[in-house]
């Protein structure tokens, strides 16, 4: 994908995405099937999941995403927004109809992840360019 296309897609995003690595279950609401996989990134507006099996449906299919982060269980409704690869295992989900309470929990979780990222960046030793003793 070209740099200009990546920049356009990044500019379309309403919420910053944060890397995560946790197991997830996608419930395809109208189809009645379940897919397992791992969440790769998360934002208040959605997530990206690599599924263990090929996605059997197209975009705009209603789905519920179930996962646990920092000990908190989440089950968020939404739609399949994108299928990112040929083997149909990399899936973008847009969250819909999120209650104020759930939105606040996701926002708080993302703030905590941002804080952890900032702290780990600050804790990295600076490279002085000199050889160690």
Question: How would you describe what is shown here?
Answer:
The chain is an alpha+beta fold. The protein has one domain: Beta Barrel (Thrombin, subunit H), CATH 2.40.10. 26% of the residues lie in helices and 40% in strands. It has 2 helices and 6 strands; from the N terminus they run αββββββα. A 6-stranded antiparallel barrel has the order 1-2-3-6-5-4. The chain is globular, with a radius of gyration of 17 Å.
Q: What Rg is obtained from the alpha carbons, in whole angstroms?
A: 17 Å
The amount of helix comes to 25-40%
Whole-number tally of structural domains: 1
Helix segment tally: 2
Q: Biggest sheet, strands in spatial order?
A: 1-2-3-6-5-4
> Which second-level CATH architecture applies?
Beta Barrel
> SSE order, as H and E?
HEEEEEEH
CATH topology: Thrombin, subunit H
Q: What would you give as the CATH superfamily?
A: predicted glycosyltransferase like domains
